[in-house]
Design a protein that fits this description.
2 copies of one chain form a homodimer. Chain A is α+β, with helices and mostly antiparallel strands. Helices cover 34% and strands 25% of the residues of chain A. In chain A, a hairpin with a 2-residue loop joins strand 12 and strand 13 (299-301). The longest helix of chain A has 18 residues, at 60-77. At the A-B interface, strand 2, strand 3, helix 2, strand 4 and strand 5 of A face strand 2, strand 3, helix 2, strand 4 and strand 5 of B. Strand 3 of chain A pairs antiparallel with strand 2 (31-33) of chain B.
C-alpha cells in the first residue's frame, strides 16, 4: 500500500460499508470478504482516463457515477449481481472538494445496487479512475459472449446512441439532454432476468457494431441486423437519421445490453421484459455465415468510410 | 469493456490461466471464478505510475514483476495466499515488445505464487499499471494492523533499506545490486506462517517509520524501536550508517513484513522461522504510551528534519 496522500481515507469515510459480507473494509493492507456460500464470483476492472474516456471539465459527481457504471454494466452483461468495489484514483493534486463530489456521484449509484467500496488507493498523476468490481452469479448461470447460434434473435435493451448523443448535448451545454452520457443506467436487473433466457450477452460500450462483433467472434457465428429496427435514443435522433444511426453503431457509451435469444425462449423473454422500464427490441438474427451484415430496408450497408458515404447518399 | 487497442489479448495469450478455480478468464465482459468452499477472500488494489512509483527507463520486465509484487506484499501482510489478478494497463502507445517484456516479468512472479491473470483492460495514456489481487485466508485467521498490545515484540522479516538502496544502485547502473528494488520478493510464505503467531502485521512499503505508525494507529498503542537492532540491507549499509538507517526508516519499497508477537508466541515464531531463508529480527516493543519512539544505543532520536540532523551530528 503506497498512498501519495490520504484521500482514500476521505473517500472511505464518505462511503461507509454496509454489506454484511464485508468483514474488513478500507484501511488495512487489504479488504477481508465473505464469499457467497454457493455460486460463482464475477470480476471486472475498467480504467477511465480524462481526455480519453470522458472530456476534461466533467463534473466530479458525474465522473464518480460513470466510472462505477462502466463496471456495473460489465457485471450486468454477465447476469451477475454486484457486491464489492475497489477504487484506484489518480489525481493531479489533493483536492478535497473534487473527492467529495466524486464520492457523491459514486455513492449514489453504489447505494442503488448495494455496492460497498472495500478498498483502494490514491496516487498523484494525470486524472484517471480504475474501478474493480466483484459480484455473484449462481453456478453455471452466467451469461457469456459465447453461445449465440444460427437462428437466435439479436436483441437490445432500451435505446442506442444515447451515449454519443448525450456527449454531443453536453458539449453544447445542454445538461438535461446529456443524462444518458453523464449518468448511464447499467442494466443489472435486465441482465439478471436474462439468465436462462439469453444464449449470449454483452454490454454496448463501444458501439453496437463492435460489441456485437465480439459476440459473433466468441460464438463462431455471424449476424444480420435490420437497422430500421435499432431503437435510437432521442438525443441521437435529433442529430439526424444518418448521424443518429452512426452514434448507435459506432458511438459507444450506451451501457445497454445486446443479447441473443433462441426462438423457444422468446416468450420467456417477453414475459420477463413486461417488468422492465423499457421494452427490449429484436434487431436481427444470428446467421451461420460469419461476419456482421447490416441492412437498411432490405439493402446491405457497408460501415467502412466509403460504405458509409454510400449510405449517406442514399439516406 | 473499453479497450483502446487489443494488447490485453496479447497479454492474456502470454499468461494463460492454469488454476482450476478459474471458470472463465480474460476475453469476456468479466472473469468467472469459483470461490473457495471455506474461508474468506482478501482483496487489494495498487497503482504504480512511471515517474512516481518507479523511474522512467525501467525495463518492462522489472515493471511487470514489481507491480505484481506490490500487491502480493499486501496479501502477505494479511497472511493470505494469492489466487487471481486483474490488470489495468495504461500505455503511451501500443508497443508489442514492451508488452511481451512486461508479461515475462509479471508471469515469472505470477507462476511462482500460482496467480492467474483473469482479466483486465488496456488504455492509451501516461504509463501506469493497476493490479487488483484476490486471495484466500482461513476464517478469522487474517493478520490485520490492529491487535498489537503493550509488551508485544516488534519484528521484521529480512533486511530493510534494500528498496531505496537498490534504487540508488540502479541509478548508478549497478543492476546486480539493484535486485531488491527491481525484483522484490514478497513474503507470502512468512505471512502465512505468522497466522496464529503475530498479533498485527503490515508490509513495509513506505518505510518502517510510516508503516509501523499505521499499525500503532490501528492498534491504539505506541512502540519503542532500537535502531541498532534494525537489520540493514547491504546496499543500504553501503550508503553509510546514517543514510542507510534513513533508507530503512523512510525509504520504502522494501516489501518485508513488520509484525508484532506476544511473548507467549515467540517460541512458535522462532520454530516457524527456522524454515525461512532469512531470520526475523526483534527490533522493539509495543508500549502503552502512544507514538513511535526511536532509540539509538538507548538515546532517543527524532526523525524530524532537525532531529535527524542532530542524529547525523552524533552518528
Amino acid at each position: 500500500v503506497s498512498t501519495e496522500f490520504d484521500l482514500i481515507a476521505r473517500l472511505a469515510a464518505a462511503l461507509p460499508c454496509s454489506r454484511k459480507d464485508v468483514v474488513l473494509g478500507p484501511g488495512d493492507d487489504a479488504a477481508l470478504l465473505k464469499p457467497p456460500r454457493t455460486g460463482q464470483l464475477v470480476q471486472t476492472v475498467d480504467t477511465c482516463i480524462e481526455g480519453v474516456h470522458f472530456p476534461p471539465g466533467l463534473d466530479p459527481e458525474d465522473i464518480g457515477w460513470r466510472c462505477l457504471a462502466v463496471n456495473l454494466s460489465d457485471l450486468a452483461a454477465m447476469g451477475a449481481e454486484p457486491a464489492w468495489a475497489l477504487l484506484s484514483l489518480t489525481l493531479p493534486r489533493a483536492d478535497d472538494d473534487w473527492v467529495d463530489g466524486f464520492a457523491r456521484g459514486f455513492g449514489e449509484l453504489a447505494r442503488r445496487w448495494d455496492v460497498d467500496l472495500v478498498g483502494g488507493d490514491t496516487t498523484r498523476g494525470p486524472l484517471s479512475v480504475t474501478v474493480t468490481l466483484t459480484g455473484f452469479v449462481p453456478k453455471d448461470a452466467a451469461l457469456t459472449r459465447a453461445g449465440a447460434k444460427p437462428g437466435h434473435g439479436v436483441w437490445v435493451t432500451g435505446t442506442l446512441g444515447g451515449g454519443a448523443g448525450g456527449l454531443a448535448a453536453w458539449r453544447r451545454g445542454d445538461r438535461a439532454a446529456a443524462a444518458a452520457f453523464l449518468r448511464p443506467d447499467p442494466r443489472i436487473e435486465e441482465g439478471r432476468a436474462l439468465r436462462g433466457i439469453a444464449s449470449a450477452a454483452i454490454d454496448v460500450s463501444d458501439g453496437l457494431a463492435a460489441d456485437l462483433a465480439h459476440v459473433l467472434e466468441r460464438s463462431g457465428a455471424g449476424a444480420v441486423v435490420q437497422l430500421e429496427a435499432v431503437p435510437l435514443a432521442a438525443t441521437a435522433r435529433r442529430e439526424g437519421a444518418d448521424a443518429g444511426l452512426r452514434m448507435a453503431l459506432q458511438g459507444g457509451d450506451d451501457y445497454q445490453l445486446c443479447f441473443t435469444v433462441p426462438r423457444g425462449r422468446e416468450k420467456a423473454l417477453l414475459k420477463a421484459a413486461a417488468e422492465w422500464e423499457m421494452k427490449p427490441s429484436r434487431i436481427g438474427e444470428i446467421t451461420k455465415a460469419p461476419g456482421l451484415r447490416l441492412e437498411l430496408l432490405g439493402r446491405e450497408i457497408d460501415l467502412g468510410p466509403g460504405g458509409w458515404d454510400h449510405f449517406r447518399g442514399d439516406g
